[in-house]
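Q: Protein A?
A:
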Amino acid sequence: MAERVCVRGCAVRGVHFAACPNFGDVDEGGCRGCVPTVAREGAMICDRCYKRLLATLDDAPDVIALIRSQADPLKAAVYDQEMVSGSASDEAPAPVRADLIDASDDMIRILRRWSGARIVGLEPGEESDAAHGHALDAVDAIVGMLDVLANDKAMILGLCADVIDMPPEEHKDAWTILRAVRRWPVEDTAFWAAQPCPEVACGLRAVKVIPPRREGGPTRYLCAKCGWEKHDDDD
């Protein structure tokens, strides 16, 4: 039986079909790889997509807490609207960018939808620690059923679109988890270990170690050059 390949269309970097113009060419100026990546065992996505899902989900609660710490939902304002007559009180608080509220609400709705919880946003005025707790509960539920979701084509494509993809051009103002993570990056706790990359052809003499953000989550090891990645709970 033929091996399943990643339904997201991932390809092996630097590996080409014989008919490809870049076959046998080490120059990556054209095709960077066209041979499909084999799917993870028991899943319909490749190992790299699966691990990107875990990593981005792990970041989500911290990002939501960071956003909420910068915003009071009761004072949100859209800045590109026309000003109306009248003056604000000298004691009025500075308005908060509406994108802070939109992003945190969209993120929690995404997480709650995929966790099976009631799909509602955060309460107005909800503190960052409470928001973090709600997000963490949802992430734990999603991670707990990720193997089931990953073996269903429609479900895993939908989850990946919400979590590890940027919004499509026609909905570029919408928020996905990845867009928010890139917009509000959390503190980097990673460090470098003086261990060579296991990929013999790579040659990089150190790997990046990323401690887990979620209790019980895996420590991640990755190569900044070739993209190799491993989690400490991998078989």
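Q: Protein B?
A:
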Amino acid sequence: MAPFLTLDGDPDPEIEYGEPPGLAGAGLSLRSPDLLRHFWPNAGPHPQTAGRTASGSSYSLLPVWRRQRSWDAVDWSSVQHAYGQAVEVPDLLGRLRSRDREARRSAYQGLFDLLVHQGSRYEASAVATPFLVEIVADPKAPDRFAACQVLAAIAVGDESSWLIDRPDVAKARREVERQAHLTRAQLEQKQADWAAAGSTDHERRARARRNEFSDVESDRDAARWQIAAYDAARAGVPAYLAALASPETPVRLHAAHLLAWFPEERESIAPALAHLIGAEPQPMVTAAASVAAGLCGGADDPELVNALSARRGSDNRGERWSVVLGLARLVSRPDRPLIEELYACLFGAVGPVPYWPMLNGDMATFAALTIRDLDPAVAPDRVQTLVDRLNAPADDTDRYLLLRAALDTAFLTGPIADGTAFTDLDADQRTAVAGLQHSGILNDGAMVSMLLDAYNLPRDEAAMTRWCDSDSDHESGCAPGSQA
């Protein structure tokens, strides 16, 4: 999670996200002029100095989100955060309006650490959310953009997991309601049925092992807290929509990013994003809104498609590629030029993109996950493209997520059956296996081994080589780039 900075009070304030892992010692930072010019060549003045949106929306028209009770009225000792009783939370909430910018910064980081730990949310996450929404809605509050950042984390937890799993929130909500009435015995039976339903012996054993170390009632509570946190953040959508009219560029940017996660509210969100995309003078805000439109909008939404298409030829790489990312998710059958632009983003967006809120600026990984979701009929070369990117020279792109995108794309039906030979794989699957062997990622540790295990593939390089070489009829089958 990017650190939170306050921007008020400086004669020449700056947005600063710090240096993500991988940049240390590389001679670059997110404020590097060369890096900024690469993605935002025509961005104009520093983002914080830009005034109102091009639409001229009045900041004074923002509705004020009124909390129903003070946080002092909450018994924080009765709710839990990541480390126990949430007794620290009211003090942290109070410091969000401090005149001391460092106090505000540390309070936001503290809230994030307590309310969203490794993607998990807790009782206290939902209880604290209305007070953060109030910050977003208050025109006089400092650091409203930071409140948006914490709210996005409360809503979805780990952003990469959300993008990978594409959860059906409405279905999860119904399941939480159904499980609320089950006894422990019924929950344990449901858990046993889930383990038995694995598609392979290997998967069934893995599920059974998982069940040995879990508690059904704790799992039920965790699911309930995640939905409660999401719905508490979702209730603030009117405030986030109003914040799109803020004269502060960081507020507009992070409000747009936050709105991406609430597709159930697309009826009100989509028109607002379309308007922002059409009127916004700052390309980094347009970029955030474009990606949000792709995640939140309905398929082939004409208003969003038209707004994005109008900005498709931008000179700013960050804006242009973000528009492509949004369109590729919106249109049901993207044309070949759009797909080629998406591939260009995959290979061209190396290193964290400044001011890009998704995945801490990792636009290439977002492009990979977008390619994964393309219809095979319109992008038959998508597996080879992802494999080529996995084998590209090392940069700051998340190799694990690139591998996940490639495997998800090649193995559309999930894990292979027990006893499957390499020669039983289809062409895309053989391409993926050959590519990951060539990439060296098989030696990247436990996370990679667990991912391969999830597909019932050999877990390490030696086992993979033996599997590929087990049939003399495919002498070059695992050679890099082999399609046969």
